[in-house]
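Deliverable D5.2: sample structural annotation.
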Amino acid sequence: MKHLFFSLFMLMCLTHAQAQEKSTTQNSFTLEQCLDYAYKNATTIRKAELETQSAAARVKDVISIGLPQVNANIQFIDNYKIQTSFLPAKFFNPNAPDGSPPVGVKFGTTYLGNATLQVSQLLFNGSYIVGLQAANTYKQLAAKSLEASKITITENVTKAYLLLIVNKERIKLLDNNIARVDSFFSDTKKLQKQGFVEQLDLDRLEVSLNNIKSEKTKIEGIIQLSNEILKFQMGMPADNTLDVQGDITSYQLTNTEATSEKADYKNRIEYSLLETNNKLLSLDLKNKRWAYLPTLSAFLQTGFNTGVNDFQQWGDFKNNWFNFGLFGIRLDVPIFDGLQKKYKIQQSKIELLKLDEDKKSLELAINFQTNQAKITLANAQASLEIQKRNQTLAAEVLRITKIKFKQGVGSNIEITNAEAAAKDAETNYYNALYDALIAKVDLDKALGKLGKK
């Protein structure tokens, strides 16, 4: 028995450890995993997916209009007071004088019943044919709306992710700076005790160290906020833990090929949505024109009916129920509707002209966005190169300043200034790096490449 309990306890521990390991793995995301999670959980994506399902159902709904329509009807009537009908008096008495009042008589039976089965089939209807085409186009529109939602999610998640890993990289640098300044502070403190350094120089170093620690605290707060922003964009519950993995060097900008690309309108989902809307409006115009055409349908009706005065006879289907049936073809021809169709057609034509203007406006906007993104990226890359050079120079100045101080030919103020300059250079570098990465995302979006593998 003890062995059994021990085995169960070990199994529970192992299962718990595996669950914790699995949870940890699931909550550590690369950019691709962040995007995959967002595609599955973001509210806008789920809503767009539901819209595509609704569009598919709408297509089937339109198709069903052209299928046979079958209806059954069963009716029971109790004529507890049979209506009186009036007939001329001469109908009963040919010798009745002219002007005699009509005679009231009652026709019918107390109990009536009928059971009817009706089948109808649409043979030709212009609106139905256009409706089939429009339903499929609407389905395409829903699919493109889903793609547009994914592009927006891709942009938002990517930017939030990049902000997070850039700031995490800054934390690493600040930790190195704290360790470096703290080590130098300890060495200087020993020299101060020996009388080689003034207390004022030591205080300056402590101020510099505290500033770096304060900067780290600030960045840690930004990281927490960035983490919450990323979870929000991904559609992840706020109480879930999330950690990201990735090396900032993987996102360094090594070329400027994108800045030489030209805008292709067809790559932009907004342009594709406009073209699909154009198809829908064209089909709407076609539908209104085809409304002038007649509608042809066929129908078949069959059933049984009865009429008795004794309710007990109502259920005698063999003797008191009689079969009937009919079939036919119906042609509905529109003749004059007060010019309603004419003015509806005019409205549809105007909507198409308005859409053409929207397309021209979008083309101008795409050109502007692409050129703006190219200029922004080029400037960001130039600034990044300058800040990278400044970072290298500041680090070299700090290294030489420390050597001079140790050799007794430099001052503590020079070291403090060099430390501050190095910290500022690092901050400026990572700000420039983030700006360049975001500029690249904006250019990919302008070129219609965002979210496409």
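Annotation notes: Residues 78-84+107-124+294-333 form one domain. The chain has two domains: 28-65+125-292+338-446, 78-84+107-124+294-333.
The annotation will be released with the project's public dataset once the embargo ends.
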